[in-house]
Amino acid sequence: MQKIFVIHNLLPGVTREQFDSWSREVDQGVMSRRDGCIRYEVYYVEGDPTGGEPFCHVVEDIDVEDVDRFMASLKTPEMERVMASFKDYGDISSVRFVVGSKINPARLPSAHSQPGS
């Protein structure tokens, strides 16, 4: 499994309520049905815990079986319509994709292991 994060800003003047409606009614249903999509969730960036300004408004968190297969599934007439409507809500120039894979945690000794065993 691989992870894709998509980050972007809302257009000036677009409210959260407007974006929420579009995200729920258009984007989330289509994106979650893409080939190889395991999970698709959308988050608002609420702030920066260090006190700085957040660098984006929205993070899309996507788990996929295969990045290439998922990205190829975005080249459909259905996705073209989603992207065309996204331009009414999101700042297309701010969209960034990041792909990664999980670093598995170290195996910790079980509570029942004896030191040196």
Structure summarized in a few sentences:
The chain has 117 residues and is α+β, with helices and mostly antiparallel strands.
Q: Topology as H/E string?
A: EHEEHHE
> What share of residues is helical?
25-40%
Mean pLDDT: 92
Number of domains: 1
Radius of gyration: 18 Å
Name of the CATH first level: Alpha Beta
Structural class: alpha+beta
Biggest sheet record: 4 strands, antiparallel
Count of helical stretches = 3
Explain this structure to me?
This protein has 117 residues and is an alpha+beta fold. It has one domain: Alpha-Beta Plaits (2-Layer Sandwich), CATH 3.30.70. The chain is built from three helices and four strands. It has a four-stranded antiparallel β-sheet, with helices on one face. Helix 1 packs antiparallel against helix 3. The radius of gyration is 18 Å and the shape is globular. The mean pLDDT is 92.
